[in-house]
Amino acid sequence: MRIVLVGVGKMGEAVLAGIVSARGPQDVLVVNRRRERDEELRERYGVTPAALDEAAARADVVVLAVKPKDITGQLDAMRESLRPEAVVVSLAAGLPLEVMQRHLAEGQPVVRVMPNTPSLVGQGMSAVSAGQGVSKEQLELVTDLMITCGEVVVVPESQQDAVTAVSGSGPAYLFAVAEAMAEAGVQLGLPREVATRLANQTIKGAGVMLVESGTHPSILRENVTSPGGTTAQALKVLDERAVRAAFSAAMTACHDTSAAMARAQLEQD
Ligand SMILES: NC(=O)C1=CN([C@@H]2O[C@H](COP(=O)(O)OP(=O)(O)OC[C@H]3O[C@@H](n4cnc5c(N)ncnc54)[C@H](O)[C@@H]3O)[C@@H](O)[C@H]2O)C=CC1
Ligand SMILES: O=C(O)[C@@H]1CCC=N1
């Protein structure tokens, strides 16, 4: 199966890393604007750079990882080169399947995926939505591809804005928590290196426990919170500062931005 990745920036490279570590670099073509980026990726992953039309003509799957505003231009540019059975996948936030379909030949299979950057280390979370007329086999092709980057869930397209708020943008919230915890440790007198190591490994350990223990997060939190102890005082302050409500408001803002981007794409197109 020949895979073409178009616009290999931060997200594209994370997906590329997953694909190459599971399947090897043969059969992976990359299309970039800058030649230096092509050479960097060839050196780092052993993949082959190519021009868009030439790569599209040979593709079984094309993965578009350019910015949402650049997707339709790329679809227009590859439309005539694509084989009818080639599956076109977009990783773009707020870019509806309907817009993709408008820019491709009738019946060209399209799939929308919301991945996240932990794909770079094989711990990604991808949510996949199939466009009209995509066969079970074609959807499986895409889920099999994304599973090389981590976990995969199939969702209706109507849920993609909410998915973006939870898992697409989610790593950024946790990186911000990591920064905040390390900084607070420094304020409490720990050397920066030690504070950073403690914060990072704590987030990793809690994450692995969440996924592997199958225990509800409330129970895991209670297990840390000794009556009258230290954790209860820390959680009280987080509640007083409305951290839960802040997460809800932040994720609503993320969801609404994704939905507004999709509306604008549909209207402007
Ligand atoms: N960064 C993230 O955590 C996530 C990003 N996404 C989506 O992934 C897409 C890419 O985002 P990032 O990687 O963050 O942006 P980025 O700016 O790092 O990557 C975009 C890449 O596309 C390249 N590009 C632009 N025009 C091109 C063209 N005409 N031909 C070939 N390459 C071209 C740029 O040079 C750049 O390398 C966006 O649509 C975003 O919504 C989705 C989920 C998570
Ligand atoms: O911030 C963004 O728009 C992209 C989509 C999800 C994560 N990063």
TrEMBL record:
Its main location: cytoplasm. It is found in: Cytoplasm. It holds the Pfam family F420_oxidored. Keywords: Amino-acid biosynthesis, Cytoplasm, NADP, Oxidoreductase, Proline biosynthesis. Transmembrane segments: none annotated. This is Pyrroline-5-carboxylate reductase. Belongs to the pyrroline-5-carboxylate reductase family. Residues 157-260 form the Pyrroline-5-carboxylate reductase dimerisation domain. NCBIfam families: proC. The lineage of its organism: Bacteria, Bacillati, Actinomycetota, Actinomycetes, Propionibacteriales. Its EC number is 1.5.1.2. SUPFAM superfamilies: 6-phosphogluconate dehydrogenase C-terminal domain-like, NAD(P)-binding Rossmann-fold domains. The gene is proC. Gene3D superfamilies: NAD(P)-binding Rossmann-like Domain, ProC C-terminal domain-like. It is an enzyme of class 1 (oxidoreductase). Residues 2-94 form the Pyrroline-5-carboxylate reductase catalytic N-terminal domain. InterPro entries: 6-PGluconate_DH-like_C_sf (IPR008927), NAD(P)-bd_dom_sf (IPR036291), P5C_Rdtase_cat_N (IPR028939), P5CR-like_CS (IPR053790), P5CR_dimer (IPR029036), Pyrroline-COOH_reductase (IPR000304). It catalyses: L-proline + NADP(+) = (S)-1-pyrroline-5-carboxylate + NADPH + 2 H(+); L-proline + NAD(+) = (S)-1-pyrroline-5-carboxylate + NADH + 2 H(+). It comes from Luteococcus peritonei. Catalyzes the reduction of 1-pyrroline-5-carboxylate (PCA) to L-proline. Pathway: Amino-acid biosynthesis; L-proline biosynthesis; L-proline from L-glutamate 5-semialdehyde: step 1/1. GO terms for molecular function: pyrroline-5-carboxylate reductase activity. HAMAP family: P5C_reductase.
